[in-house]
Write a structure and sequence with these properties.
nine-stranded mixed sheet, single chain, alpha+beta, 13 strands, Glutamine Phosphoribosylpyrophosphate, subunit 1, domain 1, four-stranded antiparallel sheet
C-alpha cells in the first residue's frame, strides 16, 4: 500500500493577505515533508500522526500547543485525541494545561484502561510522568486576548491562525483553529489525530469536539479529522458520520459530499479532512477557508489555491477603486 497523508491547520474566515497564505502554506508543507518521509521509510500511521501533530502543535501560527488561544479567564486549556483505525481505539485529553504537546499524553493513553481524561485527570497524569511544565502562551495570543477583553469579549472566537502581520487587525469574522493529521501507512492502517487550544474567549469548562469521536474518528475503512465550530461538529457527529458511511459502502468522496450537503442545510460552520483504506483523499468545508495540505504519494497539494485567487480578485478591485 502506498502511504497517503493529509493535514489541516484550522478552518474559518479567509486569511487577510497573500503573505499570510504563503506563510501558512510553508508551515503545512514542512510538516508534510517531514511526516511523509517517515511514512515512505515504513513508519506506522500512528507514529506519523503523532509526529505531525507535534510539529503543528509546536508552530505558534496554529491554535494548538504553542500558540493556543486563551479562554475567557485568560488561561490556556488544550484538548486532543487520537484514533487508531486498526485497533479501533480512541484516546483523548480535555482542557489540559502547562504541557508542550497534548498529543503526547494522548499517545500514552492509547495503552491505558482509562483512555479519556479531563483537566484534573490529565494534570495528574502529567505529574505522574514528570512531564516538564511548559507555558504555551505567545505574545500574539496574549495581545489578541487583551484587545478583546477591553470590549468585554464581543467576539465569540479567536482568530483561526496567528497571522504574520506587522500589526494586529481584528477580522470582520472570527476563525476556528484546530490542527489535525490523518495518515494511511504501507500496511493499510488508518489513524487520525486532532489537537486544539479551543475557540478562545469561551466559558471555562467548555469541552471541544477535538477530544470526541465527533471530531476525530477512524476505523479500518476511513479516518477523519474535523475543524471549525466544535458545537456544530458535535451536532452533526461529523467525523463518525463520514466514517460510518464509508464503512457501509459509500465512496469517501460521496460520503464527504453528502455529509457536507446536510451540514449546509443545517447552517453549520466547519471543515474536515479524510482518507480511506484505498488511499482516496478527500476534504470538505462549509466555512470560507480550510487550511489543509496533502501528499498523494507523488506530489504535495493544498486547499489554499482558491484563497489566493480570492485575494487576487480583492486586490484587483482595490486597485480599480483607487
Amino acid at each position: 500500500m502506498q502511504p497517503k497523508l493529509i493535514i489541516h491547520g484550522g478552518a474559518g474566515s479567509s486569511l487577510k493577505s497573500k503573505a499570510a497564505i504563503h506563510a501558512v502554506r510553508h508551515s503545512l508543507y514542512k510538516v508534510i515533508d517531514d511526516v511523509y518521509s517517515m511514512l515512505r521509510a515504513g513508519a506506522d500511521a500512528a507514529d506519523a500522526v503523532i509526529r505531525g501533530c507535534q510539529l503543528l502543535e509546536d508552530d505558534p501560527r496554529f491554535n494548538s500547543g504553542t500558540g493556543s488561544v486563551l479562554q475567557s479567564d485568560g488561561q490556556i486549556r488544550m484538548s486532543a485525541s487520537l484514533m487508531d483505525g486498526k485497533a479501533q481505539r480512541f484516546s483523548g485529553v480535555i482542557n489540559v494545561s502547562r504541557v508542550k504537546n497534548p498529543i503526547d499524553l494522548v499517545k500514552i493513553l492509547q495503552d491505558s484502561p482509562d483512555r479519556v481524561l479531563s483537566d484534573y485527570g490529565a494534570a495528574e497524569l502529567v505529574r505522574e510522568l514528570n512531564i516538564p511544565v511548559y507555558n504555551p502562551l505567545t505574545e500574539k495570543r496574549l495581545h489578541e486576548w487583551l484587545e478583546e477583553r477591553q470590549g468585554n469579549f464581543e467576539r465569540t472566537m479567536a482568530d483561526v491562525v496567528a497571522e504574520p502581520e506587522p500589526e494586529f487587525v481584528k477580522p470582520s469574522e472570527p476563525g476556528r483553529g484546530t490542527i489535525g493529521v490523518v495518515a494511511l501507512d504501507h500496511k493499510g492502517c488508518l489513524v487520525a489525530g486532532t489537537s486544539t487550544g479551543g475557540k478562545g474567549f469561551e466559558r471555562v469548562g467548555r469541552v471541544s469536539d477535538s477530544a470526541m469521536p465527533a471530531g476525530n474518528y477512524a476505523n479500518r475503512y476511513a479516518a477523519v479529522s474535523c475543524t471549525g465550530i466544535g458545537e456544530d461538529i458535535i451536532d452533526e457527529c461529523l467525523a463518525a458520520r463520514i466514517v460510518v458511511r464509508v464503512t457501509d459502502g459509500l465512496a469517501l468522496k460521496d460520503a464527504v459530499e453528502r455529509s457536507f450537503a446536510e451540514a449546509r442545510e443545517n447552517g453549520r460552520d466547519f471543515g474536515a479532512i479524510a482518507l480511506d483504506r484505498t488511499g482516496a483523499i478527500a476534504w470538505g468545508k462549509t466555512s470560507k477557508s480550510l487550511l489543509a495540505a496533502y501528499h498523494t504519494g507523488h506530489q504535495i497539494g493544498d486547499t489554499l489555491e482558491s484563497m489566493e485567487e480570492a485575494q487576487g480578485i480583492e486586490l484587483e478591485q482595490e486597485e480599480r477603486a483607487a
